[in-house]
Amino acid sequence: MHLAALLGLVGLSQSLSADDTHFHSNLNYHSPSCRHDSLGINIPLVSRRTLKRGAVPYTPDQLNFTHGVASGDPYHNSVILWTRIAPSTASDTSNTTVQGSVDLYNHDTEKYIQADPNPICVDWKIWPLNNNSSSALTSQGKAYTTSDIDYTIKIEATNLSPFTSYNYQFTICNSQKSSPVGKTKTAPSPDSDDISSISLAVFSCSNFPNGYFNAYGNAARKNQHDYVIHLGDYIYENSGSGERAPLPRKIIFTLHDYRTRHGQYRTDPDLQLLSASSAWFPTWDDHEIANNGYRDGFSALNNTEASFREGGRLVSVDQRKMNAVRAYFEWMPIRQVDLDDNLRIWRYFKLGKLIDLIILDTRNYDRSITSLGWNDGYIDLIKEEANRSLMGPRQEKWFYKTLVQSKERGAKWRVVGSQVVFAGNTMGGGGRDNWGGYLANRNRTLRVLGENGVRNTVFLAGDSHQNWVSDVPALGNSGYNSTTGAGSIAVEFAGTAVSSSGTAGPISSANNNARTQVNNNHVLQWQEGYYRGYFLLTAGKDKVDAQFFGSPSVATRNSWDLPLANFTVMSGENKLARPVAGGRVEAGALRGGNVVGTNLTRNTETGQWSVVGFPKMYI
Ligand SMILES: *[C@@H]1O[C@H](CO)[C@@H](O)[C@H](O)[C@H]1NC(C)=O
Ligand SMILES: *[C@@H]1O[C@H](CO)[C@@H](O)[C@H](O)[C@H]1NC(C)=O
Ligand SMILES: *[C@@H]1O[C@H](CO)[C@@H](O)[C@H](O)[C@H]1NC(C)=O
Ligand SMILES: *[C@@H]1O[C@H](CO)[C@@H](O)[C@H](O)[C@H]1NC(C)=O
Ligand SMILES: *[C@@H]1O[C@H](CO)[C@@H](O)[C@H](O)[C@H]1NC(C)=O
Ligand SMILES: *[C@@H]1O[C@H](CO)[C@@H](O)[C@H](O)[C@H]1NC(C)=O
Ligand SMILES: *[C@@H]1O[C@H](CO)[C@@H](O)[C@H](O)[C@H]1NC(C)=O
Ligand SMILES: *[C@@H]1O[C@H](CO)[C@@H](O)[C@H](O)[C@H]1NC(C)=O
Ligand SMILES: *[C@@H]1O[C@H](CO)[C@@H](O)[C@H](O)[C@H]1NC(C)=O
Ligand SMILES: *[C@@H]1O[C@H](CO)[C@@H](O)[C@H](O)[C@H]1NC(C)=O
């Protein structure tokens, strides 16, 4: 059953008292949904608690901006700004499991945990890039935070100008203590036709214990993008060990666990750098909640009473989802597009008439059963069934309608942010846990593109920890020619991980594996699994360029950045331009082209080029 339906609605009073205004301006009190029992925070109660306890406010020296600043989900006139201001870097333990429960019961210690009654007040302001003269100040406001939302602050800065870069900053009220200055950018006006190009830096799969987030740092230093897209697996729920051991040091289940994990990830200096310097469009994959999720469970948690027997995890699938989702909304600069639907993060951004960005949730929203490690035979039996859906009927309907609307409004490019790989049946995940396990859903998508003449569609994907670049032929592959690209109706750029493991072993075995993949998948034009990294997608009126970059090693924090391959899609051609990648890539396997293997990398701090071989890829 759908989580929203399970939770039921509660009629929270929406009336604002003057005292509550600054609570309300912090969107995280609505996080992720003020209308759902257990998820939203009862602001009048928090506000009354403050008055009743005669709270003694913190002094500025008792507080810190503990995790930098971030911004995201830009509209043409507003953007989300984020920070955390707290008496400690540690996340708060007062995990609200019951709506309105102010003093919370800790089942481990059998004691009530007192929520911190002292609201912390911050002033925020936003001004045009590099012009902080008082006359240039564009927008400002005040917001409160408390332990109820882990001391996070998330506000919407409004009255901004389209496609404009801004600086912003938070300051503790009545003090000089300020956060770092962040940089962000609004979207173009939905109908503006005069934007010549927009660049998106695309990331996925940033596993903290597995390695350093060098790809984030490199992109931030190069500063060639307008916006960041993170396709998910932004955090991982697993346990682990080693020099970047995860906190807490175990698989995570509780709200406190998820908050602690998000907090640890945001200590990474390269994540802080990219967060402070760009507006992000975040979405989640499975690991923001747990591995191989679907509507009723995860690979390592069944929604059965066995989960509550001895040795079980003692948490229901829905409770765990709520914990993860709430921490996600607290810690990410993302909008809640539908307060009635806490799992909804599929959404649509009109970046002028140049790009319509369609962000999907192919994972947690309403996905039919996936590969869970013990049911692969069953998935193979059912994967062609028409009623299987990767997105659920509501999201599917919205997706198809949005594709057609986008064409009708004359947007030049449709960029679809999927998590899992779309093209081919077996690529990147064995074909059970990606679109290859939901063939009817993919067929329906291809039919919508084909029958409505939706053109200039670019699929993005992450999830697989390897690079896969493909043509997307029309439904049934009829007439597709992998040499010329004839018969293709879209393209896919599926990127490697920021730091999660790709193929094991030396580059030679990764390249051999890539050759096998290209030979076995006729739509696949380039495959590469050795390097960690990201790609830059630049859309103009005539073409889209995709430049892939590799991080030679994530075993250390370093600034080496290796150009791997460049692709072009000409407007109206709906296929990768030939010769694909100019006939030449750095690594992997290119259909009908050469692999040069120069190891020529550029240091994004010094600008220096050099041949750098790194023996060790991961921590
Ligand atoms: C704030 O940060 C400074 C510098 O890292 C540290 O010395 C101080 O203890 C922190 N204060 C609090 C309340 O966390
Ligand atoms: C509440 O948080 C504590 C840690 O502070 C944790 O041990 C406990 O399991 C949590 N309870 C729930 C229901 O999440
Ligand atoms: C803002 O203005 C002050 C005073 O002119 C200057 O010292 C400071 O560097 C400026 N900061 C930014 C972020 O522009
Ligand atoms: C800063 O903004 C003010 C107010 O809009 C404007 O008058 C001034 O020219 C700007 N200065 C710079 C350096 O852009
Ligand atoms: C979930 O149930 C399946 C089928 O009974 C079982 O094989 C698997 O081990 C269970 N997983 C967990 C984590 O209990
Ligand atoms: C899906 O359709 C198949 C027949 O193709 C049927 O056996 C199955 O019960 C259906 N599943 C659901 C969830 O409706
Ligand atoms: C998908 O479409 C192809 C081509 O029409 C067809 O052969 C295949 O059976 C379809 N699969 C499903 C699951 O609908
Ligand atoms: C693909 O197109 C090329 C170039 O026109 C042609 O030589 C080749 O025979 C075509 N392949 C197929 C399978 O039709
Ligand atoms: C891709 O383009 C970049 C920038 O133009 C260039 O430096 C690089 O050599 C190209 N890479 C390949 C593999 O052609
Ligand atoms: C590139 O680096 C890899 C890994 O260190 C090494 O195996 C390979 O020989 C190097 N290739 C060149 C052309 O230097």
Automatic annotation (TrEMBL):
The keyword Glycosyltransferase does not apply. Pfam families: PhoD, PhoD_N. Residues 200-548 form the PhoD-like phosphatase metallophosphatase domain. Residues 1-18 form the signal peptide. SUPFAM superfamilies: Metallo-dependent phosphatases (SSF56300). InterPro entries: Metallo-depent_PP-like, PhoD-like_MPP, PhoD-like_sf, PhoD_N, Phospholipid_Metab_Enz. Keywords: Signal. It comes from the Eukaryota. Residues 67-186 form the Phospholipase D N-terminal domain. PANTHER family: ALKALINE PHOSPHATASE, PHOSPHATASE, PUTATIVE (AFU_ORTHOLOGUE AFUA_6G08710)-RELATED. This is Phosphodiesterase/Alkaline phosphatase D. It comes from Podospora fimiseda.
